[in-house]
């Protein structure tokens, strides 16, 4: 018997990706998968890509998850805290939702509303000191998808004093799976295909998380819905803080020992298809020849490094396993 794993919210896109990764993990045994409206359905009926995974979705009840060694919460924002509070203290938890990411209760109230549930260890292992913090934690808040793409591009540059934290501009395009699986008119194929559309301009909920994780003090963030199922491409620009700083060298040094972050050779630019199905982030950096701003482009799979893959990476550390266990460093092509 391996490490016993439960998944709450297993019927969604992130939940389905978690099930796929857990099923292929050499140390994990999936013992419980729960859902709300899809409870009672076979997993393969909800996620056809998981044909042969012989498990029925249970109702989201603490009793169904209490015997697990670790539980992933892939629930809508605002729903994780109540369920986590009912689980035994012996059960480790990784929350893919936003409930426990923010340290500032006022920021939670402004961007999410409702009562702030408190702050857990932040689940981005590539930040300084976070691998150790995650490895010793019983409760970890996994990152937002836009947040990880932006933070990996920006945080080392701010920390090294290579760019000013006061003037950061991000434009990031995401596939439709980032909006979840619920039926919504604006996500219909006929609405999305052949179209790019911004949304939540100037008020996206990942802004306080990005500022918290990167040290940025002034951030303009514009998300764009792209006509693809999955992937994020983020373009991050900032004002150089010193003319002597080499942003490429800063990023290369920061991620020299990070197996999932790849600073690409000069002239090769990230694209989302190259990260599909992986837990990797691809980065490239240059200077704008007109303004002198530093430009970093970041690509991830929003359901991989942006959600389920990142959560499994954190779980590996929490359980004393190598962080790469059961995760792919390489994408799927074509």
From TrEMBL:
Residues covered by the Semialdehyde dehydrogenase NAD-binding domain: 4-135
Reactions the enzyme catalyzes: N-acetyl-L-glutamate 5-semialdehyde + phosphate + NADP(+) = N-acetyl-L-glutamyl 5-phosphate + NADPH + H(+)
Subcellular location: Cytoplasm
Catalytic machinery residues: 145
Primary residence: cytoplasm
UniProt GO molecular function: N-acetyl-gamma-glutamyl-phosphate reductase activity; NAD binding; NADP+ binding
Keywords from the named record: Amino-acid biosynthesis, Arginine biosynthesis, Cytoplasm, NADP, Oxidoreductase
Pathway(s) annotated for this protein in UniProt: Amino-acid biosynthesis; L-arginine biosynthesis; N(2)-acetyl-L-ornithine from L-glutamate: step 3/4
Any GO BP annotation: L-arginine biosynthetic process
Enzyme Commission number(s): 1.2.1.38
A single GO cellular-component term on record: cytoplasm
Biological role: Catalyzes the NADPH-dependent reduction of N-acetyl-5-glutamyl phosphate to yield N-acetyl-L-glutamate 5-semialdehyde.
PANTHER family associated with the record: N-ACETYL-GAMMA-GLUTAMYL-PHOSPHATE REDUCTASE, CHLOROPLASTIC-RELATED (PTHR32338:SF10), N-ACETYL-GAMMA-GLUTAMYL-PHOSPHATE REDUCTASE, CHLOROPLASTIC-RELATED-RELATED (PTHR32338)
Family: Belongs to the NAGSA dehydrogenase family. Type 1 subfamily.
Name of this chain's protein: N-acetyl-gamma-glutamyl-phosphate reductase
Originating organism: Micromonospora pallida
């Amino acid at each position: 018997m391996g490490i016993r794993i439960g998944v709450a919210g297993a019927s969604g896109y992130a939940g389905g990706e978690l099930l796929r990764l857990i099923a292929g993990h050499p140390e994990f045994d999936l013992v419980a998968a729960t859902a709300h409206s899809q409870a009672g359905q076979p997993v393969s009926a909800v996620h056809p890509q998981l044909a042969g995974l012989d498990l029925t979705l249970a109702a989201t009840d603490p009793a169904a998850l209490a015997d697990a060694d670790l539980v992933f919460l892939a629930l809508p924002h605002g729903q994780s805290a109540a369920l986590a509070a009912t689980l035994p203290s012996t059960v480790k938890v990784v929350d893919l939702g936003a409930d426990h990411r923010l340290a500032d209760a006022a920021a939670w109230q402004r961007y999410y509303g409702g009562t702030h549930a408190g702050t857990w260890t932040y689940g981005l292992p590539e930040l300084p000191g976070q691998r150790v913090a995650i490895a010793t934690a019983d409760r970890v808040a996994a990152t937002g998808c836009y947040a990880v793409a932006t933070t990996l591009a920006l945080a080392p540059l701010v920390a090294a004093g290579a760019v000013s934290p006061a003037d950061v501009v991000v434009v990031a395009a995401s596939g439709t799976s980032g909006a979840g699986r619920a039926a919504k008119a604006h996500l219909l194929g006929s609405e999305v295909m052949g179209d790019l559309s911004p949304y939540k301009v100037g008020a996206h909920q990942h802004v306080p998380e990005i500022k918290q994780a990167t040290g940025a003090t002034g951030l303009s963030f514009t998300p764009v819905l792209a006509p693809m199922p999955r992937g994020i491409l983020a373009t991050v620009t900032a004002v150089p803080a010193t003319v002597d700083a080499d942003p490429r060298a800063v990023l290369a040094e920061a991620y020299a020992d990070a197996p999932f972050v790849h600073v690409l050779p000069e002239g090769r630019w990230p694209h989302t298809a190259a990260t599909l199905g992986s837990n990797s982030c691809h980065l490239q950096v240059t200077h704008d020849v007109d303004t002198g701003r530093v430009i970093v482009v970041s690509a991830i799979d929003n359901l991989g490094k942006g959600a389920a893959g990142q959560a499994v990476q954190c779980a590996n550390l929490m359980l004393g396993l190598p962080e790469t266990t059961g995760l792919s460093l390489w994408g799927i092509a074509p």
